[in-house]
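Sequence and structure are kept together here, with a separate record for every protein. A complete record is shown below as an example:
=====
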Amino acid sequence: MKNKFFLIILLITIISCKTIEKSETNTISEKFYWTNDTINGKYIEKTAMFVPFNINGLKKGLFAQFDLGSNVTIIYQNNIKKIPELNNIKLDSLNYKNDRGQELFKVKKAKINIGKIHFDTLDIYGIYDYGKEFLPDKNNVPEINSIGTVGSD
């Protein structure tokens, strides 16, 4: 009797279990770059992560710091001044200053690529007269070719 009960339970278990099939997922992975820095006299590895960043189809080896502490993507006006292809971007003033007294702007419906990941119409923000002017060079390290930060937006 115990054997029959055990056999029935085993049979019910086998019948009621569903076969789980592996599903194929489409994942996109993107290369990123760590930078190191000295903070308060102490050398620290992996202080910032940079990702390939292109705006409006421009492919000049630009990067942005990946910052999960920021809720918006921000570009720095001075960092894009010497890039002729970005001189036609309309910077709409927000008539607002951040807590450091810096004026902010918005670029409406920008076409952004973070590596292979495409965002068709993303509003990004910026800081007037902030950052360092540079000429993009594909041989530069990512932090030199950085035009801002990528936030969680």
User: Anything to note?
Assistant: Residues 18-23 have pLDDT under 50 and may be disordered. The first helix runs from residue 2 to 16. The helical segments are 2-16, 77-80.
